[in-house]
Amino acid sequence: MSDFASFPNTRMRRSRASAWSRKMVSETMLSPADLIWPLFITEGETFEDPIPALPGVSRWTVDLIVSKAAEAIELGIPCIALFPNTQADRRSDDGAEALNPDNLMCRAIRAIKTAHGDAIGVLTDVALDPYTAHGQDGLIDRNGHVLNDETVAVLVDQAVNQAEAGADIIAPSDMMDGRIGAIRKALEMNGHPNVQIMSYAAKYASAFYGPFRDAVGSRGLLKGDKKGYQMDPANSDEALREVAMDIAEGADSVMVKPGLPYLDIIRRVKDRFDIPVFAYQVSGEYAMIEAAAAAGAGDRDALVLETLTAFKRAGCSGILSYHAAHAAHLLRSKS
Fold this sequence. Notes:
This protein is an alpha/beta fold. Helix content is about 40%, strand content about 15%. Helix 5 links the parallel strand 6 (about 170) and strand 7 (about 195-205).
């Protein structure tokens, strides 16, 4: 450290003494434009189905999803992410409902785009776990092993199906090898060159996904685990290889999932690659904040904003968070 940076010539507390000064020298700025709001869709009409494992989060029927999109627009949130809770009688071992142009996901996409057009972006999940009877993200053989190449062929058709419905961003969360290149080629060939791909490039086999699996109805169905295709939480260099491959195959942006336990991965990816990096603050992270606030262990508003700011500080261009709408309200009240 230089000689001039010694006490009392330098008092680090000077710039912290007043709110206006702290704001002026803040290195990381968080705004509603940094947020993507994940929303769960369910069948029916004008019906909200609260999710016990995610206090404050519900499944919404298509007509109410359109209203939630309007709320996001009003709050300045630029994009929503959709996840369907497919009915049990429409699930199958081959996940065929994912290819139905009138499935829950596609109906929600069309309804949002009809109502709001380009006023908001729609990000759609590409994976088979919301559609399979066994809860895995892909097709399985008789031994329960998830088949990579056979799954990729279905994911390509699923992605085109969603693009045809009006999706703006295709987000493959399956972690099959080679699926980004195959999906990019299919989008180009089917007249969707401007549909973005946000790859779940570094998705870990995490213990933080439980409430999400409740929300999409796959937890009780899942046979085995997903360690054969999702990443080992102990690995860091491997994440860089995954990201490099997905960029080379045509990803426009990449995602690290989960979020807070993997801030080191976010920073490494951001430092290595010249591409937008997103994080998913997953269901288990959300539930822990809510539980801490309910137990009086911390102030909910402060916990929400501090964790979201941590993602931005680590290098994220944006964050998928179930707290998105609440955070946007807080940020607007502070501005």
